[in-house]
Amino acid sequence: MTAIVQDQVDEKKRRWLIVATAAVGAAAGAGVAAPFALSWFPSARALAAGAPVEVPIDKLEPGQQITVEWRGKPIWVLRRTKEMLDILPKADPLLVDPECTVPQQPAYIKGRERAIKPEYFVCEGVCTHLGCSPTLKKEIGAASDMGPDWPGGYYCPCHNSRFDLSARVFKGSPAPTNLKIPPHNYKSDAVIVIGEDPKGA
Length: 201
Hints:
Layout: H1 11-38, H2 44-49, E1 53-56, E2 65-70, E3 73-79, H3 82-86, H4 88-91, E4 120-124, E5 135-137, E6 153-156, E7 161-163, E8 184-188, E9 191-194
Antiparallel strand pairs: 1-9, 2-3, 3-4, 5-6, 6-7, 8-9
């Protein structure tokens, strides 16, 4: 007589093992994928080394300036008003380099506005004299406490360097050149990318 032995399958245990195996596999996959996905974003070290920085500008009010950091330097983003732009030509005779012939800006930055879009002025907030950071003095005339002829601009109280609202240096300042304009482009109407040239530039 032959005995036929059939395996007894515990369906509950089988399902539990399948679920447990799937869970362990998913966790392992996430553990591998997470560092890979995070590697797409610039690390703090990469940011310090000069990775581009995105700056939202949609909440920036006319006349308001914000400061962000790129490569360890303060970068200003000033939303200039029409009045601020209109006064720029009046400062030309008082400036060291009104045409910006010294290459302190990327080649695609042209004109006295020194900007891709005149309304938004992007500039390194570092004085070209000894590396101090000037202060925005946007009021015009006596209201500025800079004298009745002040056309608005930037003032470095450390050594008395003065710049207009395009960061062009005034004659008589210890700073030898205009302030630098960093490479930048517009990701959209609401976001500027600091540290990255426009495509095709």
